[in-house]
Design goal:
mainly alpha
Length: about 400
């Protein structure tokens, strides 16, 4: 056991990487007041079972709380046409989610005995079946809303009385021998557990257009929380988490009302979210938090590997903030010039392009049915005219023959 701990300390918890030059883990433990908590890497191990607990709690919450709430708020699911099972088409769909090529159509027509239009219709309806319902999207948004709201409220209460909340240079006073309050310790553990649960559920959650960016965000956040705790950057880390939670619960609440059809409430919450996001992520975060981590920290220690690692993760988050700000400004443009938020620019991966495809396909199908109906009516009318013409000619012939017979 001692041998294993020695290997872990040598390869993972290397003091020359995590801590400034001349500082050891022992210095952090001995530098804090007696009876106060100091950060220890093994404290983070509890986040793994807590992450699984979050997943179980989410499963119960979505069915016991979110589902009845969605019905009360008037969330309605779009009726999807169930396709007739066709094994060849099903196999093709599972292997190739994109639009088939002309060669694919020729092969499918040969094996399935269907026309190209029938294959297109089947694939469109099959894609629709896999789309998440509004109820499912509402349940996911409500779970995140509840967590972000509670986390932001608790974090704000625990930080309001701290000196570094008002003066960010206080983050480095006495570093790294800084005690960690019990509330801030659990703030870290809960946030780390939640983001671990999001990463574990990423394969079953609704995929959005910024899916890759979300993965990068979750991984960067997990590394940032874990590293800042181990290296006792707790003061800066709590500010980073608070800034992020301040706008996330507004976004999730706007989504909830959007799925329920509350357009005015959704638009109001979205505008409020956009203002808070742009101020906190593009002004406060880079100008106060990133600045103090990059510049103010150099008054206490010289650059070392952990310094570059921390600030590298902060810059990754800032790059993602710029990307999401661009999406939000697109939505603001739609809101100003179109009078409403038509779609969430971070909406489901298929929700924009595929819904347009679905509406276009249904419109095309309706147009085809209308054309076919008009064509059938014309053919029927023509046929009737032909029958009436034949009957008239027959009657004329009979009338012309009757005098001769007499």
């Amino acid at each position: 056991m001692d041998r294993l701990e020695e290997l872990v300390n040598h390869w993972i918890w290397r003091q020359d990487f995590w801590l400034p030059p001349g500082v050891t883990w022992k210095d952090i433990a001995e530098g804090t007041a007696k009876g106060s908590r100091h950060p220890v890497p093994r404290d983070l191990l509890i986040s793994l079972p807590l992450a699984l607990g979050f997943i179980a709690l989410r499963f119960v919450f979505e069915r016991v709380v979110a589902l009845p709430l969605s019905r009360r708020l008037g969330v309605r699911d779009r009726v999807r046409v169930r396709v007739t099972p066709v094994p060849k088409l099903e196999a093709f769909y599972l292997q190739n989610k994109q639009q088939p090529s002309q060669n694919d159509f020729l092969v499918l027509e040969k094996h399935c005995g269907l026309t190209e239009r029938q294959i297109q219709t089947w694939l469109r309806h099959r894609r629709n079946q896999d789309r998440p319902s509004n109820t499912r999207k509402f349940c996911e948004a409500s779970w995140r809303f509840v967590f972000y709201l509670i986390a932001f409220s608790a974090g704000l209460v625990s930080l309001l009385h701290t000196p570094w909340f008002w003066d960010h240079r206080e983050c480095w006073r006495g570093y790294p021998r800084q005690a960690v309050a019990e509330a801030q310790h659990w703030y870290y553990i809960v946030e780390l557990s939640f983001y671990l649960s999001l990463l574990l559920c990423v394969s079953v959650d609704i995929k959005r257009k910024d899916f890759k960016e979300q993965i990068i965000h979750h991984i960067a956040t997990i590394f940032l929380i874990a590293f800042s705790y181990c290296a006792n950057y707790v003061r800066v880390g709590t500010l980073v988490m608070l800034v992020h939670d301040s706008s996330d619960f507004l976004l999730e609440s706007a989504k909830m009302f959007n799925y329920g059809g509350w357009r005015k409430t959704c638009d109001t919450l979205f505008v409020l979210f956009a203002v808070v996001f742009l101020i906190t992520r593009l002004v406060i975060f880079p100008c106060r938090i990133v600045y103090t981590a990059v510049v103010d920290s150099l008054d206490v220690f010289s650059p070392y590997p952990g310094y570059y690692f921390l600030n590298g993760l902060l810059l990754v988050l800032q790059a993602l903030h710029v990307f999401w700000a661009w999406l939000i400004l697109r939505m603001v443009h739609k809101f100003v010039f179109l009078g409403k938020v038509e779609r969430d620019e971070r909406s489901d991966e298929e929700s924009e392009a595929d819904e347009e495809e679905e509406e276009g396909g249904e419109e095309e199908e309706r147009t085809w049915e209308q054309k076919k109906g008009a064509l059938n009516s014309k053919l029927a009318s023509l046929a009737n005219n032909c029958v009436l013409s034949n009957l008239t000619n027959q009657r004329r012939k009979m009338n012309s023959r009757m005098p001769k017979a007499r």
